[in-house]
Structure formats: structure tokens, C-alpha cells
Amino acid sequence: MSEREYWAFVSECPEVFVGQATLARVESFLIGYDAHARRHGGPGLDGWRDWLVAKRGRECNHAWMGLVRHLALPDERWHHWQLSPEQEERVITTLFALLDEFLSEREEEPHTL
Questions:
Q1: Considering Cα of 96, then 99, then 104, then 107, what sign does the dihedral take?
Q2: N or C: which end of the chain has fewer CB within 10 A?
Q3: What pTM did the predictor assign?
């Protein structure tokens, strides 16, 4: 199973992997995945934050979680990371869509040895 296939599977039913599918739990799961992949020689989320900055078109001082919020809620304000249930659902959906796009582009890159 490719990374894209794995994350597509997770996105269909995240509560199977994280219990209650809250944004914090989905983000934590992704952080754990990244740490595990890197520890075992995989690329994990290498380049993810830079890709999100390029996608957004401008830098900010947030980690990737904030960048995803900016992309998911471009015209909305969110205060102290508190989101309404509707906003949180939109961010989760956007997170999985962005992750798929990122992984798709990474798959297309030529591999160098």
C-alpha cells in the first residue's frame, strides 16, 4: 500500500485510527506517523511545511497545522486555535486533501540515488 493509499484509507474513517475524529487527534496521528517514518528511514512529511507555504503563497510563523488552517479557512478568523465544529470538519477534510496532493506530487518527483 502506497502512502497515498494509506492516507486515503485513513481519511475515509479516521475514527478507526484516532478514536473520536477531532482535528487535534488527526494532527497528532500525522505527527506520530512522520516521526515513525523518519526513524525508520522513510521520508515521512519531509517538505510538507514548505509545500504548504508555497501552496498558500506566503510565509507565516505557524507550524504546518496553522498553515493548513489558513488554507482551509482563508477568509475566516480563528482565535487561539479554537474552531467551531464546522470549521474543524472543514480543516480535517482540507488536511487530507492537501496531504493527498502533496504525496501525489512527491510520487511524481524523480528519485535520485
A1: negative
A2: C
A3: 0.90
